[in-house]
Structure formats: C-alpha cells, structure tokens
Amino acid sequence: MRTTYDDAVSTLYQASVDTFVTERKRLAGELKTAGDKAGAARLAKLARPSVSAWTVNQLFWQARDVFDELLAAGQRLRAGDLAATQAHREAMAKLRARATALLEASSHAATESTLRRVMNSLSALAASGGFDPDPPGALAEDRQPPGFDLAGMELPETGAPRENRGPSLEIRPPPPAKERGSSGRTPAAMVQGRETRERERKELEEQRRKSEAERRELEEQRRRAKEDRARKEAQRRQLDGALHRAKRELESHKRQVDRLKSDLAEAEKMLAQAESAVAEIVARLGAL
Questions:
Q1: Which of 58-72, 143-157, 165-179 has the lowest mean pLDDT?
Q2: Which pLDDT belongs to residue 22?
Q3: 100: exposed, middle or buried (Cβ count in 10 Å: 0-12, 13-18, 19+)
Q4: CA dihedral sign of residues 208, 214, 217, 221
Q5: CA neighbor of 205 nearest in space, from 44, 50, 53
Q6: Up-side HSE of residue 47: CA atoms within 13 Å toward CB?
Q7: Measured at the alpha carbon of residue 153, what is the angle toward residues 148 and 154, in degrees to the nearest 5?
Q8: Would you call the peptide bond into 133 cis, given omega within 30 degrees of 0 as the criterion?
Q9: How far, in whole angstroms, is CA 248 from its chain's centroid?
Q10: Model confidence at 195, in pLDDT bands (50, 70, 90)?
C-alpha cells in the first residue's frame, strides 16, 4: 500500500521520542520512493516532540475514548454549559492516570513537572476544541491554556486531586478592579505572563538542546559514513593489487606451460628418431 503524507505523520508521532529521528528518516524515504518528494521534504522538517507533548499524543492514540470525552466536555463548557464541569474533571483525572502509566512504561519519569505540562496541554486542547493547526495526535510542543484568568476560568490542579474530585476547570468571576495593576492587568495575569515567558525560555533552550543533539547525531552519521567509504576504498585498492598479481602469475604459468609443451614435442621427436635407429640396427643384426 502506498504511504501518504498524512499516514506518515500519524505513524511518526506514535513512535517513541528516542526513535523519532530514525523513524522520520525512514518514513521520509518511503514518501520519496513513492514519488512524493514534497511530502518527504515536509516530513523531514517536523520537530521531535517534548516528552510531555509525546505523552499527549500517545493519549490521543491509545486512550481515544477518554480523549473524546474531554473534548466533548470542553465543547459544552465553551457553550456555557457549566454542568459539563464534572465530566471535564473526570476525563482529566482519567487522562492523568493514563499519562502516568505511559511515562512509567517508557524510559521517562512521571515527574510532577512533566505531568503538569501534560495537563496544561490537555486543558488547552479542550479549550480550543482540538489539535489544530497541528494534525490530530501530532503535537510537537506543549500548549498553554489561553487566558484562563482573564476569561474567568481557573486552570485545574495537576497535583493530588482535592477531596478526591480530580482535576477541575472551575468558573470564577474576574478579580475586582482594585486588585488590578496600574496597567489594567490582574496580578495573577502578570504572574502568569512571567511564568509563560519563563516556560517559553525553557522550551527554547530545550529545543536548542534537541537541535544540537540532532546536529551531533548527523555529524556522527557523516563521520561513520566517511570512515566506511575510506575502509571500502582501501579494500578495493587491496583487491585491485591482488588481482593484478594473480594475472601476472597466470601469464607466467601460461608461458611456462607453452615452453613445456614445446620441450615435450622436441623430446617426442628425438624419441621417434632413437626408436628408428634401434630398429635399423636390429634389422642389420638379423641379416648377419
């Protein structure tokens, strides 16, 4: 079956973080072989997801029923149906448990910071209604819920659920004007802005680290390829030398065979002459 670009993207983002680069190269090769050079080039540029973004993707692929429950609850909340708050909490609690299991089953630790980023991304996806502009289940970076404080909504806790209620999306009124700063922004919004900038800085550092790791990996691959070419070239030169020597020995043996054949013909001629002389002598003796 011919591999399409969309199929390749879905397959790529279901791969583990550790094998992402190798799988991306393999799938890009399949697209190129299938004649989709533009798709292969687009696929080769897709970024490797962070561990938390990878976890969200796996929840989409492996816990679709609960994921759909979360999106449905988010849609109801956006429409003003506050009765969906409980459904949202329950879906978030289920997905947090599944995320913990996924991380523990992989080579990545289910740390509180990782789970917090996972839950933030899930809240953002529920608030926006899906992965757009990314393809479904192909999140490369963490998402941040858009303007919860200013919209009068509280981001769910990612720690242990309070009173066993699980993560929640609570509706609350905006803070009174006296609590706002001189710029018109609430203190909570200002803190959130600083935290967002700090997260973005850390994400950029992480992306640079990943890019540097990929660069080193590519350099290592080029180095190994260069060494492999040099080794094969040395083997080729060695075999060329051995072939040249074998040909010279063959020619020498052929000349020796020709000489031996000539010597044999001469010896056979002399033998015939000797046999004739012996026969003549025997005849003369018989005549006496």
A1: 165-179
A2: 97
A3: middle
A4: negative
A5: 50
A6: 19
A7: 85
A8: yes
A9: 52
A10: confident
